[in-house]
Amino acid sequence: MRTGNPDEEGQENAGKVPQTNLRPLYILRTVAEAAVPLSAADLGAALDLPKPTIHRLIQTLEEDGWLMRDLGGRGFVAGHMLRRMSANTFSGPGLRRERIAILQRLAEEVGETCNISMPDGDAMIYVDRVETHWPLRIRLPIGSRVPLHCTSAGKTYLSTLSTAQFNRLLRRLDLSPRTPRTITSPEALSAEIALTRERGYGADNQEMVDGMIALAVPIRDDLDRMFGTLSFHAPVQRLQPEDALQYLPLLKQTAAELAATV
């Protein structure tokens, strides 16, 4: 996690126009550190760059996938290339060993498979995983992409979006059923996400895979932004949804430990 004083850093960089070859990096850093989407005007003001320059740089970064427009269409957020680089950094050998050790402890206490996932467009992607020792388990390897509307991780991510962002994304989501329990109507999913936001965790009650349940909580950075989710899933033969809630405090505690490794 960052240990510097943001105010001091801002004062240090104030009034300094980035060197030409470093300007794209400064734009990406500014977007990555922002708690909200930033407009071209915001970025130009933050970096003291003229309007034509900032628009040209943003256009290039957007075309190459480093930036993308937010769901409201008025600002810019990290694109898939920047998110992928972040995920690769997150998966670096040293950090990954520490995270796997934390995941291993959680998996041993819960007795089920535990996962870390990150948003990737209209899906969640598994970036780390520790399997349960039980022979009866669901195998979803690292790199698997799972839907947003029927997974605990996906619902957790959706619950962190603003209402406008969620509604915009909802219009393009494929709500195809995976099981008879999958939520397939926009109205029902909106209600489910509102409940998820209120209670602070996402739940999957046999909505993605018959016979599998899951719980997820957000992993947040030091600016309280969600950058990933922590979840576990289990077959209903071993764990009923109401019994899974006993592990919620441990899940939240472990998410805080994982956040401290970033």
Automatic annotation (TrEMBL):
- What is the native source organism of this protein? Paracoccus seriniphilus
Name the GO terms of the biological process aspect. negative regulation of DNA-templated transcription
- Domain (HTH iclR-type): residue spans on this chain: 18-80
- What region holds the IclR-ED domain? 81-262
> What superkingdom heads the lineage?
Bacteria
A single Gene Ontology molecular function, please? DNA binding
Pfam short name (any one): IclR_C
Give UniProt keywords alphabetically.
Answer: DNA-binding, Transcription, Transcription regulation
Q: Does the keyword Transcription apply?
A: yes
* The protein's name: Transcriptional regulator, IclR family
Residues in the signal sequence? none
Annotated PANTHER family: HELIX-TURN-HELIX TRANSCRIPTIONAL REGULATOR, ICLR FAMILY (PTHR30136), HTH-TYPE TRANSCRIPTIONAL REPRESSOR ALLR (PTHR30136:SF24)
Q: Which PROSITE patterns match?
A: HTH_ICLR, ICLR_ED
Instruction: Read off the SMART domains from this record.
Output: HTH_ICLR (SM00346)
